[in-house]
Design a protein that fits this description.
CATH architecture: Roll
Shape: globular
Number of helices: 6
Order of helices and strands: EEEHHEEEHEHEHH
CATH superfamily: Bifunctional nuclease domain
Helix content: 25-40%
Number of domains: 1
Strand content: 35-45%
Distance between the termini: 39 Å
Radius of gyration: 16 Å
CATH class: Alpha Beta
CATH topology: Bifunctional nuclease domain
Length: 158
């Protein structure tokens, strides 16, 4: 397994959110297209914000805490026909459990639980070189789009 972290939420040309996961050296990037609600949930967690009422991922974290469970890690474990699959690794007392999840939900929960995120070797085959994704021109384009998205996310929190 390869440890990764959330680099940012970007948007493709059709304004669809893309979760960008990078390796520790930030040489490889795994783009995963996600839903708008999940992108918002991840952006809120990245900024350390909170909503006036709990978002779904906040609720899941609270449920884990209340029932004595701990999210120990998230693994983006597989890709089939262009769809990524993830697993939540949860420990309750000495009893481990693995729960299937969408990568976006798993990452949103991992950020709230401060749990590490990994990708499998198979999934690593789908990474891109960071310079392909983060060229100077592309960075400026993404920066403008992200600023608009972050402003919108901040407004929705108030």
């Amino acid at each position: 397994m390869i440890p990764v972290k959330v680099k940012q939420i970007a948007f493709d040309l059709s304004m669809n959110p893309v979760l960008l996961l990078v390796d520790d050296d930030e040489l490889k990037v795994l783009p995963i297209w996600i839903g708008h609600f999940e992108a918002h949930a991840i952006a809120v967690a990245l900024e350390g914000g909170s909503a006036p009422r709990p978002l779904t991922h906040d609720l899941l974290k609270t449920l884990c805490d209340e029932f004595g469970g701990t999210v120990t890690k998230v693994v983006i474990s597989d890709v089939r026909e262009g769809t990524y699959y993830a697993q939540l690794h949860i420990l309750k007392k000495d009893s481990p459990a693995i729960v299937d999840a969408r990568p976006s939900d798993a990452v949103a929960l991992a950020l709230r639980s401060v749990a590490p995120i990994f990708i499998s070797e198979k999934v690593a085959d789908y990474t891109l070189a960071a310079e392909e994704v983060f060229s100077e021109e592309r960075q400026e384009e993404l920066r403008k789009i992200l600023e608009k998205a972050q402003d919108a996310a901040k407004k929705s929190l108030h």
